[in-house]
Design goal:
single chain; alpha/beta; 6-stranded mixed beta sheet; 4-stranded parallel beta sheet; 21 helices; binds acetyl coenzyme *A
C-alpha cells in the first residue's frame, strides 16, 4: 500500500500503510495530481497538504475516494504521525520537538484534530500528562475535509494499543456531529476526551472567519458551544474550557492506569539528535576545517563588502572601477590619482582594432557560431609574452635592471646574451616616427600626478638605446604600464617593499590588460553577430604553400 502526499515531505509510513511516495505540487494542480495518484492501484491514501484547493475539486476527490476505497487526509493539513514509526507532512515540527514530545516511541493515546498548529500543542500536553501519543492525525481546516474526525476516531478505536482518544474540533461545519452520532450509537468503546475550540466567537458581534476556511460559525449548531454540549451529552469527556483539557486528559489517563487498562509505556532513552552543524557553528560551539580561505570580500552580512568596504559606500562615494580593482586586487583603497591611472590603463587597452591577435581569434570564433564565453576566451588565450601579457615581465626586468643600476647597454645586451627579448620593448607597427598614443597619454598623466617616475624614466632611456638598434623597438604599452606601475607601487607610500616584490612575483599586472581587452573582445563578438558574418575561411592566396621552408 502506498501513501501519496501532495505538497509536503514524507518521512515514514503510517500503520495502515506500508510504503510511501511523496510528490510536491501546488493547490491549483492538487486535483489533477491527486487523481493521477489515485489511479495507481498501489496508492490508497493521499495527504493533501496544500491550502486553497478549490472546494469543487475536493468534493470530486472525496467522491472518487469513497467509490474506490481510497483515503484522503486534508486538504490544508499538516499531516499525521505515528509515534516512533512514521510522519507525513510538517506535523510535530522539528526533530527537537519530536524528542521533547516523546514522539520517538508509541504511547497509548490516539489523537485527531482539525488544526495542525493545535496538534503540536496537544502532543506536548500528551507528553506531560500521559504515556504519550500512539497516533495523531490533523484532518485539515477546510470546509470539506477528505476524511472526517469520526472516520479517524473509529479507526483509532480499532487499534488495540490505543486506550484513550483525544479529539480537538473547531467551530464551523457539522463534522463533530458525525462523531456525536458514532458515540451515541456506541460505536466508540474507548474513552473520548473532546474539545471544540472557538467558544470565543460568541464574544464578537458579527460573524468571524478564523484561520481555517471551515472555521466560521454559521448557524447555532455550528458554534463551538453547541458542539461541545452535544459531544458531552453523547458521552465524551468535555472540559469547560481549553485550559481544562490538560487536567481532563490527565485524570482520564490516570483512571485507565488505576483500572489496569493502561500499563504505561516504559520510558526509553530517546535517540540522540546530532546538533545541526550550521547552528552549532553560528553559536561558536564547534569549528570545522575550512576548505577555502578568502581575504578580499565577504558576502555573509547585510551587504557584501569588497576589502571591508560596503557596497553602499562604493556607490555613495562614487567609486570607479579603479577603486574596485584597488580593493579587490590590492586589498586597500588607493589614492584617487592611482585609481585614475588604473582606469586609464583599462580605457586605453580596451581595444586595438580587429587585426591584433586577440580580436582576430575572437572574430573567427564568433563567426564559427560559438557562444560569448568561448569567443571571449579564444581571444584571451592569445594574451601572453608577445601580445599584451608582457606587463609583469617588463616590470620584473626593468625593476631588477634599475635596482641593480645597470646601464641600458648592460641591460639590453645582457638580455640579448640570454636570448631574451626585452619585455615591454618592440611593436609590430609602432615605431620611432609612429609613436603609440596610449604610451604618450599614460606617460603624460604619470609625469604630472605621480610623486616619482624613476622606473618609467629608466624604461625611456632603455628605449633610446633599443631605438638606436631598430626603429620599431619602442617602449610599448606593456612596458609603459609595467614601468609606471612600479612607480605607482614605490611612490604612493601604501605598499611595503615586501608587498611590491610579492605583487611583481605573483604577476598582478597582466590582469590589467586581460580585464581591459575583455571589453573589446566582447564588443567584437557582438559586432560579428550583429553583422551576421558567416564562417571565416582564410583565403588560399594568403597562404604560402611551400615544401622548402
Ligand atoms: N628586445 C630586443 N630585441 C627585440 C625585441 C625586444 N623586445 N623585439 C624585437 N627585437 C628584435 C628581434 O630580435 C629582431 O632582431 P633580429 O632580426 O636581429 O633577430 C628584430 O628586433 C625584429 O624582430 P621581429 O620579431 O620582427 O619583431 P616583431 O615586430 O615581430 O616583434 C614583438 C614585435 C613581438 C612585440 C616583439 O618586439 C617582442 O617580442 N617584444 C617583447 C614582448 C612585448 O613587449 N610584447 C608586448 C607588445 S605590446 C602589446 O602587445 C599590447
Amino acid at each position: 500500500m502506498e501513501v501519496f502526499k501532495v505538497h509536503a515531505k514524507l518521512i515514514q509510513p503510517l500503520t495502515f500503510l506500508s510504503t510511501s511516495h511523496h510528490f510536491a505540487v501546488l493547490f491549483c494542480s492538487a486535483y489533477a495530481s491527486s487523481m493521477e495518484a489515485f489511479k495507481q492501484p498501489t496508492i490508497r491514501v493521499i495527504a493533501i497538504i496544500a491550502e486553497g484547493v478549490p472546494e469543487g475539486d475536493t468534493k470530486k476527490l472525496i467522491a472518487y475516494a469513497r467509490i474506490n476505497n481510497k483515503v484522503i487526509i486534508g486538504p490544508a493539513t499538516v499531516g499525521g504521525i505515528q509515534a516512533g514509526a512514521f510522519k507525513i507532512g510538517d506535523t510535530a515540527g522539528t526533530l527537537e520537538n519530536i524528542i521533547h514530545c516523546k514522539l520517538y516511541r508509541p504511547g497509548s493515546v490516539g489523537f485527531v484534530s482539525k488544526s495542525g498548529g493545535m496538534s503540536n500543542e496537544l502532543y506536548n500536553v500528551l507528553a506531560r500528562v500521559t504515556d504519550g501519543l500512539y497516533e495523531g492525525i490533523a484532518i485539515g481546516g477546510d470546509v470539506y475535509p477528505g476524511s472526517t474526525l469520526s472516520d479517524h476516531v473509529l479507526r483509532l478505536n480499532n487499534i488495540p494499543q490505543i486506550k484513550l482518544i483525544v479529539v480537538l474540533g473547531e467551530l464551523g461545519g457539522r463534522d463533530e456531529y458525525s462523531l456525536v452520532e458514532a458515540l451515541k450509537q456506541g460505536k466508540v468503546s474507548k474513552p473520548v476526551i473532546a474539545w471544540v475550540s472557538g467558544t470565543c466567537a460568541k464574544l464578537f458581534k458579527s460573524e468571524v472567519q478564523f484561520g481555517h476556511a471551515g472555521a466560521k460559525s454559521g448557524g447555532d449548531l455550528e458554534s463551538a458551544q453547541a458542539k461541545n454540549k452535544a459531544l458531552e451529552e453523547a458521552g465524551a469527556i468535555v472540559p469547560t474550557s481549553f485550559e481544562g483539557l490538560e487536567p481532563a486528559i490527565k485524570i482520564a489517563f490516570q483512571k485507565l492506569v488505576e483500572d489496569g487498562v493502561i500499563l504505561p509505556t516504559q520510558e526509553i532513552v530517546p535517540p540522540s539528535v546530532p546538533e545541526d552543524l550550521s547552528s552549532a557553528i553560528k553559536s561558536g560551539k564547534v569549528r570545522a576545517p575550512t576548505h577555502i580561505v578568502s581575504t578580499i570580500c565577504d558576502d555573509r552580512g547585510e551587504e557584501p563588502t569588497y576589502a571591508g568596504v560596503a557596497m553602499s559606500t562604493i556607490i555613495e562615494k562614487d567609486f570607479g572601477v579603479g577603486d574596485v580593482i584597488s580593493l579587490l586586487w590590492f586589498k586597500r583603497s588607493l589614492p584617487r590619482y592611482c585609481t585614475k591611472f588604473i582606469e586609464m590603463c583599462i580605457l586605453l587597452c580596451a581595444d586595438h582594432g580587429p587585426c591584433v591577435s586577440g580580436a582576430h581569434n575572437t572574430i573567427v570564433t564568433s563567426r564559427a557560431g560559438k557562444d560569448l564565453v568561448s569567443c571571449l576566451v579564444s581571444g584571451l588565450l592569445t594574451i601572453g609574452p608577445r601580445f599584451g601579457g608582457a606587463i609583469d615581465d617588463a616590470a620584473r626586468y626593468f625593476k631588477d635592471a634599475n635596482d641593480r643600476k645597470l646601464s641600458p647597454y648592460e641591460f639590453v645586451e645582457s638580455m640579448k646574451g640570454k636570448g631574451i627579448r626585452v619585455p615591454g620593448i618592440g611593436h609590430r607597427i609602432k615605431s620611432r616616427d609612429n609613436r603609440d598614443k596610449r604610451v604618450e597619454l599614460l606617460q603624460q598623466y604619470a609625469r604630472s600626478h605621480f610623486p616619482s617616475v624613476k622606473y618609467m624614466e629608466y624604461a625611456v632611456i632603455v628605449e633610446t638605446y633599443t631605438l638606436s638598434k631598430a626603429s620599431n623597438l619602442v617602449l610599448n604599452v606593456d612596458g609603459c604600464i609595467g614601468s609606471l606601475f612600479l612607480d605607482l607601487l614605490a611612490s604612493c607610500a601604501m605598499f611595503s617593499q615586501q608587498e611590491i616584490d610579492e605583487i611583481i612575483e605573483i604577476g598582478y599586472l597582466n590582469g590589467l590588460f586581460v580585464l581591459a581587452r575583455s571589453i573589446g573582445l566582447i564588443g567584437h563578438t557582438f559586432d560579428q553577430r550583429r553583422l551576421k558574418q558567416p564562417l571565416y575561411r582564410h583565403p588560399w592566396e594568403d597562404v604560402l604553400y611551400s615544401k622548402y621552408v
